[in-house]
Amino acid sequence: MSVKENFEVAKKQYEKWGISVEEAFEKLKNVPISIHCWQGDDIGGFEVDQQELSGGIDVTGDYPGKATTPEELRSDLEKALSLIPGKHKINLHAIYAETDGKLVDRNELEPTHFENWVQWAKEHDLGLDFNPTLFSHPKAADGLTLAHPDKEIRDFWIEHCIKSRKIGEYFGKELGQPALTNIWIPDGYKDIPSDRLTPRKRLKESLDEIFAADVDESLNIDAVESKLFGIGSEAYVVGSHEFYMGYALKNNKLCLLDSGHYHPTEVVSNKISAMLLFSDRLALHVSRPVRWDSDHVIILDDELREIGLEIVRNDALDKVMIGLDFFDASINRVAAWTIGTRNMIKSLLYALLLPNDHLKQLQETGNFTDRLALFEEFKTYPFGAIWDYYCEQMGVPAQEKWLEEVKDYEKKVLSKRNS
Ligand code: RNT
Ligand code: ZN
C-alpha cells in the first residue's frame, strides 16, 4: 500500500472522533520551530580567537565531519531542513558572527557581521533568532558575567547584550518576522554562597540597563532563560527560575523554559498552562536531560508528547515560541537535527490528532477511567500513517528514508572534511 492509501485508511480512525486531519495539517504547517545552529558544530562558533566551550555546559563525542566554517554549517542546515517538514527559523548565537578574519570582540558586534546569515535566510525563506554569547570568553572565565562584582566586566557584557538585541532587531526588519533574542548566562557558584542576594541584585540592574536600550519590540522580542545548576555552578545559579519569572512578569519579557533546567522530576509541560495565565507569550528550549542537563537529542517520549499537548490543547500554538536546545557530538549532527526537529513536529501533530475537547470533558465530569483508557488507546492509533503522509505532502521523505539522504551526504560531504 502506498503512503496515501495507508493515510486514507488511518484518517478514518481519527474522523470517527470528529477530528479533521486536514485541519491539523493546516495548523501544523504554520508552526515555526526555532532550530539551533549550535548542534552543527558543538557550540564552536567562528570567532577568530575561538575559545574552549565554557559556561558549565558540555558537548561529548567526536563524530567526524563537524562544520568548521559558516558555509559548511549552512550547507549542513540546508540538508537537515530538506528532511524536516515545514517552514522554520534558525537560532544563532553571537559566536556565529562572520568578521572576515578580523578580531571583533563581543561588545563590538554589529548587524553587518550577520549579513551572510540574513542573505541565506532570505534565500531559504527562514526566520532567524538570536542569543548573546556570555561564555567561552576570557571575560567569562570566573563563571560570572552580568552579575560579576567587577563593573568593567559587567559593562562589557551589558554592551554585548545590547548589541545582540540590535542584531535581533535587524533580523526582524530584514526577514519580516520578529526575532527572539534570548539571554542565558552561566553565572553561579560551585559551592554554598555566603550571599545569594547581592549577585541577583546586580543581575537585575544589568538586565535593566540592557532592556533600557531602545530596540523595536515589533522586530525583536526579548527572552530570559533560567537554570538550576551547571558544571561549576552546582550550589547556586544567580538567574534561577524564580528570579527570571519575577523579572519577566514585571518587565514584560518572555520567560524561556529549557526542559533541562529543572529538578529531575519537575517538567516544563506542567509549567506552560500556569505561566500562560500571567503572560501572553512564552518561549521554550526543548531538550532532553538524561540524569542531568545533558542536552540529549529529543525523542518522542512522554514529556515531549506532553509539551505538544499542553501547547495544542491550550490553544497556544501562537503564544509559545518553540525552540530546540540539544547538542550531541557522538552521532551524525545532521541526523541529530533531523531526528530532534521531526520529533518536535510529531509531538504537535500527535496532540492535534487527539479528541482534546472530549478528553477535557471527561475530566470535568470526573470520568477518569475513560480519560486514561482513551489516552492509552490513542497511543496505538495509526499515527505513523498520518505523519508519513504529512511528510510526503510537505515534500520531505517519509519514514526512515531521510536517513539514506543523510548517509549519502555524509559520504559525499562530511567525510571529506578534516574535522
Ligand atoms: C545552557 C542553556 C543555553 C545554551 C545555549 C547554547 O544550559 O540551555 O540555552 O544551551 O545558549
Ligand atoms: Zn537552553
UniProtKB/TrEMBL annotation:
Q: Where is the signal peptide?
A: none
* Cofactor binding note of this UniProt entry: Binds 1 Mn(2+) ion per subunit.
Q: Does the keyword Isomerase apply?
A: yes
Q: Which residues bind Mn(2+)?
A: 261, 293, 295
Gene Ontology molecular-function annotations: L-rhamnose isomerase activity; manganese ion binding
Identify the Pfam families for this entry: RhaA
Cofactor(s) needed for function: Mn(2+)
Q: What's the chief localization of this chain? A: cytoplasm
The chemistry this enzyme catalyses reads: L-rhamnopyranose = L-rhamnulose
Q: What SUPFAM superfamilies does the record tag this protein with?
A: Xylose isomerase-like (SSF51658)
Give an example GO cellular component term for this record: cytoplasm
Q: Which UniProt keywords apply?
A: Cytoplasm, Isomerase, Manganese, Metal-binding, Rhamnose metabolism
Q: Where are the transmembrane segments?
A: none
The source's domain of life comes to Bacteria
Q: Which gene encodes it?
A: rhaA
Record's protein name: L-rhamnose isomerase
The Gene Ontology biological process annotation of the record reads:
L-lyxose metabolic process; rhamnose catabolic process
Cited function: Catalyzes the interconversion of L-rhamnose and L-rhamnulose.
Task: Reply yes or no: does the keyword Cytoplasm apply.
Answer: yes
